[in-house]
């Protein structure tokens, strides 16, 4: 009796945004194991979720095809039946168009899982494009605490999405609501290497979880109080002159004047007193 040959196939894990390099052990078309691939740029480690890929792949309850419910939601048996992709897409498109025609696009809310910690990462741009073309502003994300600032702060500051930190040359690393061990393992590996050579770790997190457990400084901010903490740190930087004024002037809006009465950027029309503009006055400044 012949013995089936086991193959090691190089690739990467797609179960989160980290996309860690991996080696997959396959025999007779079956996935047996997933291991790190140290020769890959992001393959030094593989998290438990990545290592569990064979269990996920072979799970008998894994949904592989479109399924349509045939019984009411009140029934204990949904009565799922397999349908073709064409039938599923046609049915869904018809229902969405019917709602949009009768009630408007805003009557539809789209629920989207986190792109950072799930396989949705490779598809999220197309999903968001579909939602925008449909015309609905109602996108409900299931996301992690680190998502908002790592995406939006970078976009507002640098004009693009998140850039990869230069952990290799960092002397201090600030993790603000970010637990890379859970959602971006390659960054966790680089942070561990930086810490091993002496880099200090500062963690801002309500929970003592992830890197907050062994951080050099754990700043246990209360939920919802990130703003005051950020303003306090900014005030210290300004008082001590510990910032790059040339960089801020060239690459950020830090040099723009802000109206004290509205909190909006001061415009030329405000100074010229154009119609509709509300110029600054002493009374408003004293508020």
Q: How does this structure look, described?
A:
With 287 residues, the chain is α/β, with parallel strands linked by helices. The chain has 4 domains: 6-58, Single Sheet (N-terminal domain of TfIIb); 67-141, no CATH class; 148-220, Dimethylsulfoxide Reductase, domain 2; 256-287, no CATH class. Helices cover 34% and strands 15% of the residues. It has 11 helices and 10 strands. It has helices at residues 48-51, 53-58, 85-103, 124-134, 147-158, 180-183, 185-196, 226-240, 245-251, 268-272, 282-285, and strands at residues 6-12, 21-27, 30-36, 67-68, 81-82, 110-112, 139-141, 172-176, 200-204, 217-219. Strands 1-2-3 form a 3-stranded antiparallel β-sheet. Strands 8-9-10 form a 3-stranded parallel β-sheet, with helices on one face. Strands 4-5 form a two-stranded antiparallel ribbon.
Percentage of β-strand residues = 15-25%
Number of strands: 10
Pattern of helices and strands = EEEHHEEHEHEHEHHEEHHHH
Distance between the termini: 88 Å
Radius of gyration: 26 Å
The structure class reads alpha/beta
Spatial strand order of the main sheet: 1-2-3
Instruction: Summarize the amount of helix as a percent range.
Output: 25-40%
Give the count of structural domains: 4
Average pLDDT, rounded to a whole number, is 85
Present the secondary structure layout.
Layout: E1 6-12, E2 21-27, E3 30-36, H1 48-51, H2 53-58, E4 67-68, E5 81-82, H3 85-103, E6 110-112, H4 124-134, E7 139-141, H5 147-158, E8 172-176, H6 180-183, H7 185-196, E9 200-204, E10 217-219, H8 226-240, H9 245-251, H10 268-272, H11 282-285
Parallel strand pairs: 6-7, 8-9, 9-10
Antiparallel strand pairs: 1-2, 2-3, 4-5
